[in-house]
Automatic annotation (TrEMBL):
SUPFAM superfamilies: Nudix, NusB-like. NCBIfam families: nusB. GO terms for cellular component: cytosol. PROSITE patterns: NUDIX. Involved in transcription antitermination. Required for transcription of ribosomal RNA (rRNA) genes. Binds specifically to the boxA antiterminator sequence of the ribosomal RNA (rrn) operons. This is Transcription antitermination protein NusB. The lineage of its organism: Bacteria, Candidatus Ryaniibacteriota.
Amino acid sequence: MASRHLARSMAMQALYEWDFNNVDDTKIDEIITRVIDEFGPGFDDKNFVYDIVHKVLEKRKEIDAIIKHAAPEWPLTQIATIDRNVLRIGLSELLFGNYKDVPPKVAINEAIELAKTFGGENSGKFINGVLGTVYRELGEPGKDDGSKKYSPEELEKLPIERRAGAVVMRGDNVALVHDVFGYWTLPKGRITLDESDKDGALRAVMHELGLRDLEIEKKICENQYIAHDPETGPVRRRVVYFLARTSQEDLHLKESGGLVEARWFQKGETESLKMYDDIRKILNDI
């Protein structure tokens, strides 16, 4: 709606001034008030502007880390100030907002429009690329409680997205991948319609880790949670995990905006890693 677009525009302008002038966080409300008085006198949804800016500042460390991983070729300080803060607004709404109030596609489209209005010639394309990268992985950080946002009836109506992955072992070492949200997790990928879970896991994991040999030993478990597909929106992501082994020492992570690193870890080392609860449980149960 137009009022929300204006609110985001004013939030972006407040964040731009705060960022460009390196203003202390404690002064942000003064900036917001001045921006609203200048660009939105009589605006009746002022709280939305404050909420956006406050959420960005509250989650800035996490958001900036995600930008760093999702756009590794662009150090944060080299991203134009407008683009940097449009990304912060977009990621704040994507990752920490209410999906029913602001659906992911709305958050992305609004950020793109802000970039086109206030940024440079290529800003819209840049914002779309970074947010699209994050959107493809969206659902992972909130998977422990994502289903709570939907009623049983709503859950039943969501399409199912089939994926398969593996706990890949080399002796006592386990292969993990690092995602754009800063979590270490298990390699996995989509299953095609004509593949079995086992065949899909074998193909996807070998491709993702650059493995030349991999042997699937047994099925471990099956997880299901809410994720977001760029084409269809919310989906029930069903992931079947297998135990697999390889003798290959070198890992070659495929180029992916959603993943930034692949490494071997001793099983005892995983306890100190930032991991999703369900992935940690899988590793602990092996």
